[in-house]
Amino acid sequence: MKEPKRLLTAAQAKALDQKALTQFGISTLVLMENAGRAVAEETLKVLKSRRDQLALFCGMGNNGGDGLCAARHLLVAGLQPQVYLVGKIKDVKSEAKVNLDMLLELKQKITEINSDNINYIRNKIVALRLIIDALLGVGVKGELRPLYQQLIDMINISTVPVLSVDIPSGLDATTGRILGCCIKADRTVTFVAKKRGMVYGEGKQYCGKVLVRAIGLPSISLF
């Protein structure tokens, strides 16, 4: 897909998702499937071997759902991803839950993250070849909660290469402001178009190489 010249704000990105459903009949689940597949495809390009170890850090919203979907595609491709969830499995809802349930049916282990097991996770990720950041998407507002800040600091300090899903977690998609702390990504797979915050403010310092991927929205819907 040729990258549109337009930069999307957080509100515009959300509106496009709604327009996909109401005008084109494209469900959020279909968009999530396409997004997760795009992330998995880029991951397979980055890794040198199916034996390379990687981890996905997933939040409870749609960005986390994209990550859970990507984890399924990677699992089916023969990798053995570590999957971490910020929250409880029982609390995941909507389209993210659909993807979580599919992973569980495939016997993928999901580790729930809490303040008590941060050190355990820190020790687990040191030997990884790649971390996929699907913690927080374009809808995040305000200062990040302490647990997210702990995780982001831990990932950044690890020096493991990071691929962010849609936008680095902790970056305001509209202004490019850092919301307390932010994932320092080596590359970001973003969907439909670049977000405004990737170009303005501090955004350019945190996104790494930005790859725009189509997820099934007609280009006419951007204008």
Can you describe this structure in just a few lines?
This protein is α/β, with parallel strands linked by helices. Helix 2 packs across helix 3.
Features:
223 residues, alpha/beta, 7-stranded parallel beta sheet, 7 helices, 7 strands, 15% strand, globular
Topology at a glance:
Layout: H1 10-24, H2 28-46, E1 54-58, H3 62-76, E2 82-86, H4 94-105, E3 110-113, H5 118-125, E4 130-134, H6 146-158, E5 162-165, E6 187-191, H7 204-207, E7 209-213
Describe this structure in words.
The model has no long low-confidence stretch (mean pLDDT 92). The chain is α/β, with parallel strands linked by helices. It contains seven helices and seven strands. A seven-stranded parallel β-sheet has the order 3-2-1-4-5-6-7, with helices on both faces. Helix 2 crosses helix 3 and helix 3 (62-76) packs parallel to helix 4 (94-105).
Series of H and E elements = HHEHEHEHEHEEHE
Mean pLDDT: 92
Rg, Å, rounded: 16 Å
N→C terminal distance: 16 Å
Major β-sheet strand ordering: 3-2-1-4-5-6-7
User: Helical content, roughly?
Assistant: 25-40%
Helix count equals: 7
Q: Roughly what fraction of the amino acids lie in strands? A: 5-15%
* General shape: globular
Low-confidence stretches: none
Structural class: alpha/beta
Biggest sheet layout: 7 strands, parallel
Instruction: Tell me how many strands there are.
Output: 7
